[in-house]
Amino acid sequence: MPANPLDGFVVDRTQIGYVGEGLQRPECILAERDGSLWAADARGGVVHIRPDGSQELITQNDPGAFAGAKDDATRFTVGTLPNGLAFARNGDIVISNFGTDRLEIMERKTGRTTVLADTLDGKPIGKVNFVLRDSRDRLWLTISTRIVNWMEAVSPNIVDGYIALYENGRLRVVADDIAFTNEIRFDANEEWLYVVETCGPKITRFRAAPDGSLSDRQTFGPEDHGAPIDGIAFDAHGNLWGTHVMMDRIFAITPEGELRIILDDHDPWTSRVLMKEFRAGGASTEAMLAAGGRIAPWFASITFGGEDLRTVYIGSLRGTRIPFFRSPVAGLPMVHWNER
Fold it and tell me: In CATH, what number does 119-326 get?
């Protein structure tokens, strides 16, 4: 294999730029070839940031109630809370809604929202986290926990998350017993599905069969990151990038399984308190809210964008703008990249 483009690379903090302003919880970001960004927003919709820097909040609307949360403590448990985003083939936005606990699709121009799924076998889905569309137009949905207040599930002792596949209007479980299921990504050939176990804290992968079944469960990279993990994304070389949420680091796992820290913005003291509580059985709300860095508190996701896919955008849970920097390697194009 050619030399890894990440050899010797760390982010130069003086070269970090920002885009967007007044955002609320831009957890997940989608990038389009024309330079547009689409960011989930806690005000009840998705913000479209155009290539010229102008932005517009497209608010979700449907016959149901979409009431936004008002502060950090309730923002994560009340009302509509778009979390994971994916583009449908026609450009509309599929939403895994962390507030309504539903899989939804929103028209990109009007905000009109339709519920795709809100129950599984007649029961509530659980805490819906992330959604990923594959090349077969199937939707892969992650459910972090069945506990309504997700902060109570930030514990190494709770393993009730799962992955569901939405196909032909039906939702079915394809993997379970996951420690707070978070973001998922396929490799370039969609042979392996990689999943974040936030409270693992580790990356797990499954071999994906054409029928959507998952098997050969195994850990990719370290068995324990020593920090909760949130988002992941592949680059074109096969490195898996990710975020250590609340401890605010960006890492990469090489194809050989080596962990590298690319950007470190964590606060040592608050991180130590957070992980001590976590190891003891569960982190308190106070410890979680005290943790985080300065660039964009609570790093959440990684998105490759720009015309050459070498601009890296950082999603966050408590930031109000989106940091970005340049990468020495392009990101792996997502399925929507060449569709529009």
Answer: 2.120.10.30
